Amino acid sequence: MDVDVKPCVSVDDKRLIHSVQTAGGPLVNIKPLISTDSKFLLTASERNIKVFGTTTGNLLKEFIHHEAKVIGVMPSGIVDDQYVSCDENGVVCFWDLHNENRNEEIQKFALIRNEKKLKSKVVSFHFCAKLKILFAVHQRDNETQKGYLLKYMFPPLDTIKHSVVSPDVLLGPGQFSVSNSGDYLAHLSPEGLVIYGVGVKLQDCKRRRHLVDTRFLTCLAFHPTQDVIATGDITGRIVLWYEFASATPTKMELHWHMLPVVDLAFSFTGNVLYSGGGESVLVKWQLTEQKRYFLPRLGMRIKFIATDTLNNYVVASLSDNGIAVISSKEFRFEGIIQGLSMNIERSRSFPAGIIYDPRTRAIILNGRMGHVQFYDFHHSSQLYHLDITMNNFYTQERFEVIQNTDVEQVAISQDGHWLATFEYREDLQASSELRLKFWNFAKEDQNWYLNTSIEMPHDKFVNGIMFQPTPAAGQTPLCVSCGDDGKLKIWKENDTSDLYGKKSSWGCSGTGFYRHLPATAICISPDGSLIAAGFGSILTFWLPENCHLKGTLSQPYLTEKIKQIEFGHGEGCGSMVVTRTENWVCSWDLFTCTLYWRVSISSTCLAADPLSSHMAVFSKNCHVFVFEPHSSKLVTWQCNIDTCPAISAAFIPRLQKSDSTASWNEQSALIYINENQTLKTLHVNEDSSIPNDKIDRSMRQLVLETDALPAPTPFSALIAQTRTSYDTEIQTQQSGSAAFGVQLEKSTALIQQVLNEARVYRIDSFAHMTSEFCKQIIPEAVTSKEIQEKEDFVTKIKESENVHLKTKKKVSKRRKSKVKSIADSDFSDLMKVLAI
Fold this sequence. Notes:
The chain contains six helices and 56 strands. Residues 1-15, 200-204 and 688-745 have low confidence and may be disordered.
């Protein structure tokens, strides 16, 4: 049967499988906040609020007060060390930073109670303690540029009596603000700067709009002590608005940035203004002295800038998910709080995917532009970065997009000593840059060194690289790559030693192609004896020693190009190969060279567990399905595990076995990265109160709904079913027949052992296995005379053993009697002899 998973199939809130965000989440989605004593830095990662130490950079506390993505954190202004946070669902929380009983002291208010009536989400907010008003910007479902600025009275936050302050607020961070005195509110609109007057009754106050020309505004900030507003625009200009409440305000321009100004922040006293943007430079404007200072080479584009009340620190959130801590007095770099490194500048998030490093037990992912990072998933910490491209990061220009060279593919050997990377750059103006690099790990200084750099390994983009899992004894593993140029290439380490020392380099040892089709995916069998490559929609198999084509598998109704290939692991799956296309997941049997089953599903990624036979596929509808290649029956599944689809997934071996009752989650953890660049792991809810019969009914409902779907071909319903079924409760036992001399039990066990241990497409000929096979299934022919002679011989041996045992017992008895007589003697005879 062909299974087409429908998004309408759902489960209850108490789900069997749920996704849990690790520490590898974005830290720079909101503006960071420094505590009043400058000891703590607060930021949000999805629905978690994290507290770091400003001096050490360590994660000190983590609060989970929300069930949705947090869009802002700020001091409440009511009680010391009390903070207010808001999520995109409109839930506002007031909580204490140092209170141990955090759950008891949380005050929650809902801004959006009737979601059907008000279909929107909150994108930014500001709480004014002096006015006891909360302002929130709501984004409508059909709006992408503008939102509504609403006002809520406190206490309580009444959703019925809220009022609309402005209907045309630009969406995004830093688009509206309230002065510290609470006298003014300002926001940015498509036409310019809009300012509202003082008081609680904003609807009765004057509204002042300052129009701008084509220099559209990007951010704004209020002066802490004066009636001054600073705005930045797309040309990099900063404008200070004096007397902004009047029709003709006084303006002063500050201009250094070439790219748009992203964020502005005043110091606590207001004498200094900080600005940042795409140049990766933090600019310090000394307003009283009319001077400016620069802190360059921060690494990536600045997203947010925040200052503290003691004028000790200024922090800058960077687009690579790092927060730079800078001393405001010396204006120098103090340290960085680095989460899972990412790069929002690239068009595709983490193009190299998730690769497991067996040496450090970490995962390898894309880092900042041109780098890869080694991230310890088990302890949620970044180990180090490795600069692959060895190029400076080129910032963008105002009227032209600059392309940087980035890492697109990564592979690591099974022993963790060889690393292969592919970097690519294409700007459609100059020639394409394609480089395949091989890195060697030095045990002496625990560092990676570039061994070989190959220019233009393929004529077009490289779609995959992989090392041979189990090379021959004493040899370096082979590396295989495939590209859009229709080539499959095998790379081998060659000895290039000379009189100056022992050296080696990598070179191409074989090339394969098939029908001039693009090679879209590759995979090597676990024993390293076979290469599977997808050429368009055709699955091909090659020998790694000589790059010889061994066979092909295809179906006329499967026309989509193959995106991923995974060999089966574990018992019963050694001969299975699973392929993933845009809308199909197929399992192929290499012993019968046929399509075993196929399932219709719009998938985004496929992952295979190296320690078991389980695999997992993620759909575009945020569903996950766990299965085994030898059966189309699902092991488990879960709908709506996330709000956005997964882009890469992998099974990571655990440091120790889990206590989970689910076999697929016992030895390895299933992790994935979604489109929001958040690293998550799937957990089995052991405390779930869902009855087993309810799960069974859900599974049966899924099967019933999918069975009714029309099949693409008349044979598809037969192909998707498992061809063979086993009944473990009924076992047929037959003894060997005397007439034919056949022992069925031994022969069956031998055949099963041969099939399990045999290499795919590399099974030895039966001529080599004839003698052993015959010994197992055919007993030796003997006559009755030979049997009688054998029985007589056995009888004689037993009789001789009995005689020897009796003799041994008599000797032992005599020795014991002698020892006893000596113990009881008075030695008189011995004394007589000595006297003579």
